[in-house]
Design a protein that fits this description.
The complex is a heterotrimer of chains A (about 140), B (about 700) and C (about 160). With about 140 residues, chain A is an all-beta fold. In chain A, about 5% of the residues lie in helices and about 65% in strands. In chain A, a hairpin with a 4-residue loop joins strand 2 and strand 3. By secondary structure, chain B is mainly β. Chain B is about 5% helix and about 65% strand. Chain B has 4 helices and 45 strands. In chain B, the strands form 3 sheets. Chain B has a 26-stranded antiparallel barrel. In chain B, strand 8 and strand 9 form a beta hairpin. In chain B, about 30% of the residues are buried. Chain C has about 160 residues and is α/β, with parallel strands linked by helices. In chain C, strands 3-2-4-5-6 form a 5-stranded mixed β-sheet, covered by helices on one side. In chain C, strand 5 and strand 6 form a beta hairpin. In chain C, helix 1 packs across helix 2. Chain C starts with a strand and ends with a helix. Classes of the chains: A mainly beta (about 140), B mainly beta (about 700), C alpha/beta (about 160). At the B-C interface, helix 2, strand 30, strand 31, helix 3 and strand 33 of B face strand 1, strand 4, strand 5, strand 6 and helix 2 of C. Strand 9 of chain A pairs antiparallel with strand 2 of chain B, so a sheet runs across the interface.
């Protein structure tokens, strides 16, 4: 949910190290990040915080997996090889073989950026690549 | 899509896409949308989740179940299939119906409405005609098309305007106006008919045909057809207040056949017209010629395993012809016939036939006649020969009245009839033109003995002279009917040969000669008895028949009935046909018949003239009267998606005047034809005629 | 000149001893009469050959007209559609046999011309029946020769 961002972020990994100077922590190996309903799994994660306390994170995995419950109660799943999270703008960018699944709707593309505030996401494909979207039309009762 | 069925998913593929979760999804760059059987290609597309609608633009190409539509902008609601496509072009009916429109509206599954557009079944290269309409409805669920306020453009010339027209989309027959028929004939002037077909039920339909005759006025015709598992029939009626003769004229036809029980059947055939001249004025050549005695009869027939019987009530309406009056036939009210073939064993074949008939006529003598004719024959046959001795007795009883019903006493006649039929079968195998054939040779000898009995005073209700045909050579009576039985002490000799294709058994060629030799002078004649004189014609006419397939696609048959004693030809009929290829056929015929006083020759044919044109022609000349009996010329053009048929036919009518019919038919592929269809006339006048254009179905 | 009495040559009597005729039209009756004459046993208990007469139709077309436009001659067609089966195998499927005869016509003696027409139709039925037997015979002979080599080659294979 949008409220996740206020929740404390908890990271577990095989090992993590903190670089005091840049306030950057790097965790490697079975990294699991949980924040509210958001769960993220990756092989490598680097996070840092700016002075205003916004969180920033990059990670990569084979693949990186996200799961989050939305305000509407629907589940959101996503995967990609690499991701970049900008807490300040609430912008999550999934890079390389990325896909996002909401209920049965699904978007597949080379890079997908997801704005957590407006729930607006954009998918681009590298030249020659294609973006695929699958949509399940609402059930009659739901949409009327 | 019924709501319980899961909605098929929508797949969108594009260079890039964006979505506002729960509200809309947008795709840009070579967008391809797939859903169920629908596929849309466009530059951009947007799917609005809330309203479940798809919008696509700049260049849209939609394909679905063989139909292809293009346009500049598409707005469509997905589940109800309703929406519209602007600046559209479409290709539907398996690529047959093509056209463009300012806007195409989708009104549900397989229902299109075209606004200010056009439709044609011609390919872009042909582009010969197009049906323009401000509104056009193509409903493939009912296979029914309609168009309002438009015009027909032919060779880019507007031909006619129409307020409303409908047409079947699958070639099937839908309730609605059929295309109008236009024709011209010398007795009725311009003829315009606008038939309305009414498909009442799968096995009831009706065609109401109002037609306007230039010189005669308005005629209303109707045909009502019904078909059930056990019975079916047709009622046809037409009527007119004839301006020219200021009389009410009509024609009625009622035909019905019904299986009352397993072996019991009823057939009714009743025809009636208002006046003798009806068909001359309103009929085509065939009906003029063949409808002189209109049957009005009902027959109840029962067929058992080895017996059958029928009860018939029959009379005729005879259309008199001023130049050659016709003696109207007797009515048979009723006629009861039975035939019974008991098996008495011992290889015998017995048959007992009999009939009781009450002949009625208000101008000639009438009366009742009953006859019975039991026969026993002992057919013996092996593979190469057969002998069939047969004896029988024909007993006939008359009770006569005058036309006014005054009793004229009774008469009777009993005659024994004995015959022996025998023959041998010879065969040889050989090859002819590369295929092996079997040739048969069958000599036949037939002896018939019937004593003489004076029948000159007996009434003659249904006896007449017959052609000497192959079946007549071995018949017991050279007169047809039952009132005259020829006395006979005669031997018939015949020889026939046939050529069969060995592996299919199909007869390729036949030839036969035969003649009857009278051992004593035949005396019974149709009316009266021949004076006994010593020099009589000791043999019947000589009969020669041959025919078959010759190389180079030639087929011929020839029949000759020659009176050898004075060398005159009683009947000869030579037919030649050459059909080397498709739409190519030429026939020639020369026929002489002393009995019916005709000697005529005819030439007819169909030949492609190239570039889609076909010519048809037929000419029949009567040498006796040195006048043409029928001449016909026609042109047909097959333009791929349309066809034009023009034909003119001039033929002699009953009072030896001529009638000329003109046919013009413009057929627009898939829609229907405009004008009178001359096909049945062409097929009647030109044996071997092949139809040069069949309209495709839009479904 | 090479002719021999039928029965000695390859086209001996019909190649089948029993047959069933389905169809009680005129040709059906003539065919049954002819088969009995040729000593073929008519039975419906597994006959060797089953002959089904699909349809018999007669059609009358105006052949020529006299100078009063009245019919001088009709041409009468008789079309027989039949199929023949041997032990379940189809020998002839929907085979069509068309016969035609000319009949001179006189509107003043319609009743006698009608009975003459009936005689012509009866004769075409008899002619049609005998031509049917000839076609079925040829098909049965071809079917037999088609089966026998197969039988021999099968035995050949078995022998290796």
């Amino acid at each position: 949910e949008t409220a996740d961002r206020e929740k404390p972020m908890n990271i577990t990994a095989d090992n993590c190290s903190l670089d005091q100077k840049t306030q950057q922590s790097v965790c490697v190996g079975n990294v699991v990040v949980t924040q509210g309903t958001l769960v993220l799994r990756a092989d490598k994660l680097t996070t840092r915080q700016d002075e205003k306390g916004n969180q920033f994170a990059q990670g990569e995995g084979r693949p990186v997996r996200f799961k989050q419950k939305l305000d509407t109660g629907e589940m959101l799943d996503a995967e990609s090889l690499r991701f970049d999270y900008d807490g300040g703008k609430g912008l999550m960018t999934l890079i390389d073989k990325a896909w996002v699944k909401r209920n049965q709707d699904m978007v597949v593309g080379d890079t997908i950026t997801y704005d957590m505030n407006t729930e607006y996401y954009q998918a681009q494909s590298k030249t020659g690549g294609r973006v695929n979207i699958t949509l399940m039309p609402k059930k009659k009762e739901a949409s009327k | 899509q019924t709501s319980d069925q899961p909605e098929p998913p929508i797949f969108i593929e594009s260079d890039e896409a964006s979505a506002q979760a729960g509200q809309y999804t947008e795709a840009k760059g070579n967008v391809v949308i797939n859903r169920d059987t629908l596929e849309v290609h466009s530059d951009w597309a947007k799917y609005n989740l809330i309203s479940d609608t798809v919008h696509a633009g700049n260049k849209v190409v939609m394909t679905k179940d063989g139909d292809t539509l293009t346009g500049t902008r598409l707005d469509m609601s997905v589940d109800t299939r309703e929406g519209e496509l602007e600046q559209a072009t479409y290709l539907m009916g398996q690529g047959l119906a093509r056209g463009e429109a300012v806007k195409v509206l989708f009104e549900g599954k397989d229902k299109y409405r075209i606004q200010s557009g056009s439709m044609t079944t011609c390919t872009p290269e042909q582009n010969s005609w197009a049906l323009h309409a401000r509104e056009m409805d193509l409903d493939y669920t009912q296979n029914y098309g309609q168009a309002w306020h438009g015009w027909l453009e032919f060779q880019s010339v507007p031909v006619f305007y129409y307020p409303w027209v409908d047409f079947p989309l699958d070639g099937g027959r839908k309730t609605g106006f059929l295309m109008p028929n236009v024709a011209y004939s010398s007795t009725t002037g311009l003829e315009l008919t606008v038939p309305f077909y009414w498909n009442i039920a799968p096995n009831f339909d009706a065609t109401i045909t109002p037609s306007y005759f230039g010189e005669r006025g308005l005629m209303l015709g109707g045909e009502f057809r019904y078909l059930q598992p056990s019975f079916g029939g047709v009622i046809r009626a037409e009527g007119i207040q004839d301006k020219e003769s200021e009389t009410n004229r009509y024609s009625i036809l009622f035909q019905h056949s019904q299986q009352l029980a397993d072996r019991l059947r009823l057939d009714i055939n009743y025809q009636r017209v208002s006046d003798d001249h009806y068909f001359v004025d309103f009929g085509d050549r065939l009906s003029v010629a063949s409808q002189v005695n209109l049957p009005q009869e009902a027959i109840l027939s029962y067929s058992g395993s080895n017996w059958s019987t029928y009860l018939r009530a029959q009379q005729y309406q005879t259309l008199q012809n001023t130049s050659s009056p016709i003696t109207p036939p007797y009515s048979r009210l009723p006629q009861w016939y039975f035939s019974y073939n008991p098996d008495l064993g011992g290889g015998t074949q017995t048959s007992i036939t009999g009939e009781f008939t009450r002949f009625r006529s208000d101008t000639q003598n009438q009366g009742d006649r009953s006859w019975i004719y039991p026969t026993v024959s002992l057919p013996w046959a092996n593979s190469y020969s057969f002998i069939t001795p047969k004896i029988g007795v024909n007993a006939t009883y008359y009770s006569n009245e005058s036309a006014s019903g005054q009793d004229l006493g009774t008469q009777s006649r009993v005659l024994p009839i004995a015959s022996v039929n025998s023959g041998l079968f010879f065969e040889r195998e050989g090859t002819l033109l590369g295929s092996n054939v079997v040739q048969t040779l069958e000599p036949q000898l037939y002896y018939l003995y019937i004593p003489f009995k004076d029948q000159s005073k007996l009434p003659n209700y249904d006896s007449g002279n017959t052609d000497l045909s192959w079946s007549q050579l071995f018949a017991e009576n050279k007169f047809s009917g039952n009132d005259r039985i020829n006395d006979a002490n005669q031997v018939t000799l015949a020889l026939n040969t046939r050529l069969f294709d060995d592996d299919s058994g199909v007869e390729r060629f036949y030839a036969g000669i035969g003649q009857r030799f009278y051992l004593s002078q035949p005396k019974v004649e149709l009316n009266g008895t021949a004076a006994s004189s010593n020099q009589y014609n000791s043999a019947s006419d000589f009969l020669l028949m041959m025919g078959g397939n010759l190389p180079y696609d030639l087929r011929f048959n020839y029949t000759l009935q020659q009176d050898l004693s004075n060398g005159t030809t009683q009947r000869s009929d030579l037919n030649l046909n050459w059909s080397p290829g498709e739409y190519k056929t030429i026939n020639a015929r020369y026929a002489v018949n002393r009995l019916t006083h005709i000697e005529q020759g005819s030439l007819s044919g169909q030949w492609p003239l190239g570039a889609g044109w076909y010519g048809v022609a037929s000419y029949t000349h009567s040498f006796i009267d040195n006048q043409s009996l029928e001449s016909l010329a026609g042109l047909e053009y097959n333009g791929g998606c349309w066809a034009l048929r023009l034909a003119a036919q001039r033929y002699v009518t009953t009072n030896s005047e001529y009638k000329t019919n003109y046919f013009i038919l413009l057929e627009l592929g898939g829609l229907a034809g405009i004008g009178m269809n001359p096909i049945s006339t062409l097929r009647q006048s030109i044996p071997g005629y092949a139809d040069t254009y069949t309209s495709p179905k839009l479904r | 000149c090479g002719f021999h009495l039928r029965g000695q040559g390859p086209n001996a009597k019909p190649l089948f001893a029993s047959a069933q005729v389905i169809g009680n039209g005129g040709t059906g009756q003539e065919l049954s009469k002819l088969l009995t004459l040729l000593k073929v046993n008519l039975t419906s208990q597994n006959p060797e050959i089953k002959i089904q007469i699909v349809s018999e139709t007669s059609d009358k077309q105006v052949l020529s007209v006299n100078n009063n436009g009245q019919v001088a001659e009709y041409r009468i067609y008789y079309r027989i559609r039949f199929s023949a089966f041997k032990a379940g195998e189809t020998l002839l499927d929907d085979n069509v046999l068309t016969l035609q005869r000319n009949l001179s016509w006189d509107e003043s003696s319609v009743l006698s011309k009608e009975s003459e027409e009936a005689n012509l139709i009866k004769e075409m039925q008899r002619d049609g029946a005998s031509q049917m037997i000839r076609r079925i015979n040829s098909a049965a002979k071809k079917n037999q020769t088609a089966n026998t080599p197969a039988a021999s080659s099968a035995s050949g294979v078995a022998a290796q």
